[in-house]
């Protein structure tokens, strides 16, 4: 699978802010989430430093309902893995979880392209797609001992109501069957994408645990006031959701950068009591990372996690 256009970053850190409508404060907690496995660049679980004092979530990227051979074509909900299974095998998932009790592992569905072909959401019909998806994903999740799923479709050959019906039924069924314990979605500020995910949110938002919003897809040079306004807008769109905000260190990406006031914005959100005591952070591995870069990744993760935890423990 090619590098998804909105994840083509060197490193991304995401923080989860719970908006005021969430109600009473919950106990403080920290969660780091990392996408791993795309592009088959030999990135291993053990390449990433894991702080024992936080909840750490790896997200395997991706599971696709496409046949990648020849001219890639949709398989109508029959998912298979499309990540680096040599370095991210079932036994290695088990090993990292046994070594670190604070680690959970999920998988992400969709992504951008399959060998240059858009990985479009193409159900036909709804019940058939859902049945195939539940069956195939249950098999993968049990084999890999996974804990949750992330929805990252970026292209669609179905209307928003169909997307909402399919994904809503999928998440609800997997949770009811106790196959997964959480689910997240990964929208960004694009009219077509937002129509799909907002339809899903209106129908089954209560089943979605995290809104992994891609704030780094906004224009370069985003300022603190703009960032806060974007956060307010998306918190309103995904009313009641646990909305993730993000920045990227990649020079080609957009959004609010640390050097331009990302942590200042975080402080403002906290001072406005929009955190309610909860903070979750996410670290995403660079999907084009090579071995020579792993030391820098490790060092950056350690520094970034220290800064984030300090900021939100005050």
Automatic annotation (TrEMBL):
CDD domains: GH18_narbonin. GO terms for molecular function: hydrolase activity, hydrolyzing O-glycosyl compounds. Pfam families: Glyco_hydro_18 (PF00704). It comes from the Eukaryota. InterPro entries: Chitinase-like, GH, Glyco_hydro18_cat, Glyco_hydro_18_chit_AS. Residues 30-314 form the GH18 domain. Keywords: Glycosidase, Hydrolase, Signal. Belongs to the glycosyl hydrolase 18 family. This is GH18 domain-containing protein.
